[in-house]
C-alpha cells in the first residue's frame, strides 16, 4: 500500500556505519546535517519542510543519534539535555504540522522522533539501575556496570477493520476530537500472534467475536514508537458489549457512511481519521476493494 | 495458518482482572495453579506435559505473574529471586523438550517465559534508575519515584522467504546446528514499516533487492519475546553479497532441495528449521502454494 505516512524515508540507514565508530566519526564534519527539533516536535522552515542545521548547532552536551545517509551526507538528531526524562505528549499544533509536511519529511522526522524520545526516557539500565551510555551511533545503549545492551523499543500494535454485512465497526477513544471514529487497536502482548491479538482486542473492547483475520498494511507510528499492523476481520454478529474503560463508544457504520466520512466534510455520520493515520488507508482500501 | 508453535493458548487473559487487584486477590486461593519452571525452562511431568503446582509452592519472596484463566482457575507463574538479573540463553535440552510438548502447552509456556524473563531483567526504571514494582497482575511495572509505567516488551522481527525463479534464498547464522539453513530475519527498527524492514534486512544481509513484499503468517517467539512477522518477497536477481558479521552463509535452494529438506532426513542439501519455528511453516506454505 503506498502513501502511508512515516514510511518511505530516502535515508540509507547504513547499519555498517553504526558498528564502525571510526568511520562514523569521519562523517561528523561540517557537511553533516543536524535535524532541528522543537522539543520533540519538528522545526519547519518557511516552505514547511524539515529544518536542517549543522553539528555546530548542537548543544555540546547533547548526545547525537545517527539517522542515516542522505547521499554522501550523514544526518543526525540531537538528544538535548532539556529533553531528558521528558514525557510531553503530542500537542494539537503538531497534528496540524503533520498534515502539511511532505511524505519523505514525515518519514525522516518519525524515525528521529522515536529514537530521540527513546534516549530521553531510557537513561538507566533496566537490569541494574545504573546509568547507560549511547553506542552504535544511537541505535543502542550500553550499561558499563552490568554489561547489558539495550535497544530502541518498537511496540507492535494491531489495528483492525471489523466487518459484518458490508458494515464496519469503528470506535471512539475519549482523547479523540469530537465525532472522530477510527479502527479499534491494541498492543500485541507477549505470547500472541498478530491474529490472536486482533481477536482478543476486538472481543475485549467491543465484545465481538471475529474470524478470518487478514493482514492489510503496516505503518511506523512515532508517538512514541509503535509498529501499527493493519488487519481486516469478519465479525460473527453485530451485538456489542463495549468496554467503557477503553472506548467512549463503538458503532457499526454502513459503506455509504464510511464513504461520506472519507470524502471529508463535517456533516457525515462521523469524522474519519486523518491521512497520516494508517486507519485512513485501511478505510480507503476497504472502500476500493 | 494453523499449527504455529507458541500461539493458540486456551488461556483467557482476562485483562479486566489485571486492573482489579481485589478480584485478582480472591482468585489467589488454593485452587489457583502455579506453572512450574526450571529456571526459565519448562518443568515437565511424566507424560511430557507442563507441570503445575499451587501458590503454596512459590517462594514467599517471589513476584507472581497472572497468566490468565483456565476455566475458573487462575494461573500464575513465579519470578523467583534466583532468576533476577539472569540472562541464561536457551540450552539444547530446551530445544529437545519443545519438540515433544503439546501445542497448547507450548503456547502457555511461551507467554509465561517471556513475562517472567522480562520481570527478571527489568527491575529498575529506565527513566530514573530507581527500583520498580510489579503491578496489573504482572503486565506492568511501576516506578514510585518518577511515576513511569513500564510494559512487557515485544520486539517485532521480520522473517522472510526470498524467491527468484522458483528458488529460495536461505541463510545460516553462526549459532545454527550444522547444515541448518533458515529464512533471513531481522528486527523492525523505529521508523520502518514491515515491508521496509524486509527490504532493508535482505539487502543488508545478502545484498539482494526485493519487491512485492507480502505478509504470510506471524508467531510469538519467547526467546526472549519477539513477534515474528513472516513474509514473502521476490528478488530482482540472484547475485549475493553476504554480510559475514550477520550470516555464515547464504544460498539459493531449488524447490526440490527445499522439499527434500522438509521431509527430514540428513542427506538433503540442508537441514530445515524445526516445526516450532515459523520458518518451518513458511517453507511448508511455499511448497504447498
Description:
2 copies of one chain form a homodimer. The first copy, chain A, is of the alpha+beta class. Chain A is built from 7 helices and 15 strands. The first copy, chain A, has helices at 15-18, 21-26, 92-100, 103-121, 194-206, 255-262, 278-288, and strands at 33-35, 37-38, 41-42, 52-53, 63-70, 73-79, 133-135, 140-142, 149-150, 155-164, 167-172, 184-187, 210-221, 226-235, 249-254. In chain A, strands 10, 11, 12, 13, 14 and 15 form a 6-stranded mixed beta sheet that branches. In chain A, α6 packs across α7. The radius of gyration of chain A is 21 Å and the shape is globular. At the A-B interface, α4, α5 and β13 of A face α4, α5 and β13 of B.
Give the arrangement of secondary structure elements.
2 copies of one chain form a homodimer.
Chain A: H1 15-18, H2 21-26, E1 33-35, E2 37-38, E3 41-42, E4 52-53, E5 63-70, E6 73-79, H3 92-100, H4 103-121, E7 133-135, E8 140-142, E9 149-150, E10 155-164, E11 167-172, E12 184-187, H5 194-206, E13 210-221, E14 226-235, E15 249-254, H6 255-262, H7 278-288
Parallel strand pairs in A: 1-6, 10-14
Antiparallel strand pairs in A: 1-4, 2-3, 5-6, 7-8, 8-9, 10-11, 10-12, 11-15, 13-14
Amino acid at each position: 500500500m503506498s502513501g502511508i505516512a512515516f514510511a518511505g524515508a530516502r535515508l540509507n540507514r547504513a547499519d555498517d556505519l553504526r558498528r564502525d565508530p571510526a568511520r562514523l566519526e569521519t562523517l561528523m564534519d561540517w557537511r553533516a546535517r543536524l535535524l532541528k527539533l522543537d522539543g520533540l516536535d519538528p522545526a519547519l522552515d518557511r516552505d514547511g519542510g524539515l529544518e536542517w542545521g549543522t553539528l555546530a548547532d548542537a548543544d555540546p552536551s547533547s548526545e547525537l543519534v545517527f539517522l542515516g545517509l542522505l547521499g554522501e551526507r550523514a544526518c543526525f538528531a540531537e538528544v538535548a539535555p532539556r529533553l531528558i526524562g521528558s514525557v510531553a505528549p503530542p500537542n494539537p499544533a503538531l497534528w496540524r504540522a503533520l498534515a502539511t509536511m511532505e511524505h519523505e519529511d514525515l518519514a525522516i522526522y518519525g524515525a528521529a522522533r522515536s529514537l530521540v524520545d527513546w534516549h530521553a526516557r531510557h537513561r538507566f539500565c533496566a537490569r541494574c539501575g545504573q546509568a547507560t551510555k549511547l553506542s552504535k551511533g544511537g541505535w543502542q545503549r550500553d550499561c558499563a556496570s552490568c554489561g547489558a545492551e539495550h535497544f530502541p523499543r518498537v511496540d507492535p500494535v494491531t489495528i483492525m477493520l471489523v466487518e459484518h454485512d458490508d458494515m464496519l465497526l469503528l470506535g471512539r477513544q475519549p482523547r479523540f476530537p469530537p465525532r472522530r471514529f477510527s479502527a479499534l487497536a491494541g498492543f500485541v502482548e507477549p505470547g500472541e500472534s498478530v491474529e490472536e491479538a486482533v481477536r482478543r482486542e476486538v472481543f475485549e473492547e467491543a465484545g465481538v467475536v471475529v474470524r478470518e483475520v487478514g493482514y492489510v498494511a503496516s505503518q511506523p507510528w512515532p508517538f512514541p514508537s509503535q509498529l501499527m499492523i493493519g488487519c481486516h476481520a469478519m465479525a460473527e454478529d453485530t451485538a456489542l458489549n463495549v468496554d467503557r474503560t477503553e472506548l467512549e463508544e463503538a458503532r457499526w457504520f454502513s459503506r455509504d457512511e464510511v464513504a461520506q466520512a472519507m470524502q471529508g466534510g463535517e456533516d457525515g455520520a462521523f469524522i474519519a481519521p486523518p491521512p497520516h493515520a494508517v486507519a485512513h488507508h485501511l478505510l480507503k482500501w476497504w472502500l476500493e476493494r
